[in-house]
Amino acid sequence: MHLHGVDDAGEILGPCDDEDDDFDGKLNRMIMVVDDAGRCIGCGACGRVCPKNCQTHVAADELAT
Q1: What is d(CA 46, CA 26) in angstroms, rounded to the nearest whole number?
Q2: Distances in Å between the alpha carbon of 64 and those of 45, 54, 59, 60?
Q3: Strand pairing partners for 12?
């Protein structure tokens, strides 16, 4: 999983390479995106070990809506 930037409209801007990446002022928030979604088995283990308890699991087709 890697951090990706999201703008005000909910569009994914791309991977956040470093802490100073604000996508020319468009960055609203950051989300974690599974690198290879086909390998995810949906067990939720990543959410259970997240130290900030900030993960929400959403199917890719629901993310666009």
Answers
A1: 28
A2: 24, 20, 9, 7
A3: 6
In angstroms, the CA 32 to CA 14 distance is 11
Strand partners, 32: 3
Q: How far apart are CA 10 and CA 14, in angstroms?
A: 12
| pLDDT tens for each residue of 29-64 | 888 888 888 888 888 888 888 887 777 777 767 765
| Strand runs labelled E in the chain | 2-6, 12-15, 29-33
Question: In this structure, how many other beta carbons lie within 10 angstroms of the beta carbon of residue 65?
Answer: 6
